[in-house]
Amino acid sequence: MTPNVPAQPHGQVFVTSLRNVRWPPKFRPSFTEMCNGSVNPSESLKIYTTIIEAVGGDDRVKANLFPMALQGQARGTLMDLPPASVYSWEDSCS
């Protein structure tokens, strides 16, 4: 059962509590070849998770930064989800 949440502007697929994130200090990620279709999606997720965890990021950091790591159809698919439909990092990956 999905809790009732107020509508949010298009593109805000993450619920408010998930968007409330404290970014690690000096966090400047770069995802040049990852998540662009040139790497196996499963491998991309492992690399992405390792990068975020290595700098001290938690699941909220992973979820909030994930759309910026994606490219093309993968990013479009995620961002076209209904507003406030992503409740966790695991939701982002499925």
In a nutshell, what does this entry contain?
The protein has 94 residues and is mainly α. Helices cover 45% and strands 0% of the residues. It has a domain at 36-93.
Going by helix content, strand content and strand pairing, the class is: mainly alpha
Termini separation comes to 17 Å
Number of helical elements: 5
Average of pLDDT:
78
Q: Report the helical percentage.
A: 40-55%
Major pleated sheet: none
Q: Quick one: overall form? A: globular
Strand portion, in percent?
A: under 5%
Organism: Oryza sativa subsp. japonica (Rice)
Protein name: Os11g0588932 protein
Walkthrough of the structure:
This is Os11g0588932 protein. It comes from Oryza sativa subsp. japonica (Rice). The protein is an all-alpha fold and 94 residues long. The protein has a domain at 36-93. Helices cover 45% and strands 0% of the residues. The protein has five helices and no strands. Helix 2 packs across helix 3 (59-69). It is globular, with a radius of gyration of 13 Å. Mean pLDDT is 78; it is low at 1-10.
